[in-house]
């Protein structure tokens, strides 16, 4: 098997709203879009993000009413504090403040208009040496 690309596909109420959130605040671009569908990319993301409107008939019946809950869309960034300040200046509510975990992860979270959790993270916590 050879994997040529990767994507995460999330069922949401309003695909256009989630798409606009990622294009406006996270630098993604829409590569394809239609009613109830948006495929987003960034050259440096390593994967596409796809939003599908819940209830689409093109989804299998046992999936079409699921909602993207219980997951975190995480992006590792170089300047965590800079991204936090930028998003705050853009009026994006921070739903989890900047935290530092004992294993060295530093992260904060926001939610898109559909409740999808987006976490920005780095591994630059002080080592204590």
UniProtKB/TrEMBL annotation:
<feature type="domain" description="VOC">
    <location>
        <begin position="2"/>
        <end position="123"/>
    </location>
</feature>
<dbReference type="Pfam" id="PF00903">
    <property type="entry name" value="Glyoxalase"/>
</dbReference>
<protein>
    <submittedName>
        <fullName>VOC family protein</fullName>
    </submittedName>
</protein>
<dbReference type="InterPro" id="IPR004360">
    <property type="entry name" value="Glyas_Fos-R_dOase_dom"/>
</dbReference>
<dbReference type="InterPro" id="IPR037523">
    <property type="entry name" value="VOC_core"/>
</dbReference>
<dbReference type="InterPro" id="IPR029068">
    <property type="entry name" value="Glyas_Bleomycin-R_OHBP_Dase"/>
</dbReference>
